[in-house]
Amino acid sequence: MKLSKYLKTNFLIILLFIIIIAIINLMLISFKSDKQAIIGINAITIIGFILYIVYDFSRRKKFYDKFLNDLDLLDKKYLITEMINKPNFYDGEILYDALYEIDKSMAEKIKEYSLNIQDFKEYIEMWIHEVKLPLASINLMIHNHKELSDKKIIEQLKRIDDDVEQVLYYVRSENAEKDYLIKETELNKVIGNVAMKNKDILLENKIDFIVDVGDKKVLTDSKWLEFIVNQIVSNSIKYIRSDVEHFIKITAEENNKNTILKIYDNGIGIEKSDISKVFNKTFTGNNGRKIETSTGMGLYITKQLCKKLGHKITIESKENEFTEISLIFNKNDFYNVRTKGA
Questions:
Q1: Which of 75, 108, 201, 259 makes an SS bond possible with 329, Cβ 3.0 to 4.6 Å?
Q2: What is the pTM of this model?
Q3: Residue 31 has pLDDT above 60, yes or no
């Protein structure tokens, strides 16, 4: 708060004070008051007014400077009411009370919206679980009655199943920490489940599914990791090339700090200009113009879940040659020591 601005704001009050002093002086002179008395009255009045101005400016400056400084430091500006004390001047009290009421109203509105969103999420989750039952039944019927099987039907069912699961994990991704359990997980089991889930479409498209992860284990949530790997494998299947024998190769390697799971395919690859954007929400890039079923959500959700789980994900690719996605798991030394000592 600047003194010049304060004085400018209070210009009328200062002007009024000067006019009143002039009127008092005229009256004192007209009554032929003692000259020394007039000077004394003027001095006391002016000094008193100046002291009031200094006091009023100081308390306002202290309050507003702290208010603006705290506001500048806060990422969530609406928390400012928690940072300031109620001022001791009237218009400041009005501002403080108004901010408090605004903050209270906003908090109530946010709570209302949060409850509505939570209700909607719970409904979506319930609907997804319901719709997955007939999908599973149809898949079982096709598996048991080969005469009903058709490549296009299998592909469309797989697409529906993947999209439904993608919606489920997207809905859950904002609060993933409430749903996952970090524990030692065998990579072979996770990849085996993914292979079984994609068995029919892998066979239909004659894709070799090569796995070499040994007996390596990582600290993760098996259910979430299975979804992540399945998204990557589904993309590999979706973006196969027609001019080569297709394969997807999954390997794992270790160093002192990390276990790295690599998923490699010889599909259509990704343009160099698109690689840095593939984890962006709804980004489909050049491949999205080639494949109509691209949504740009799979890798975005995968990236978000990896962040929640504390894993890293990287991608390398060359157009018309390959794509390799790496999942990097940190080793937990404390957990390993406890496991060995148990």
A1: 259
A2: 0.63
A3: yes
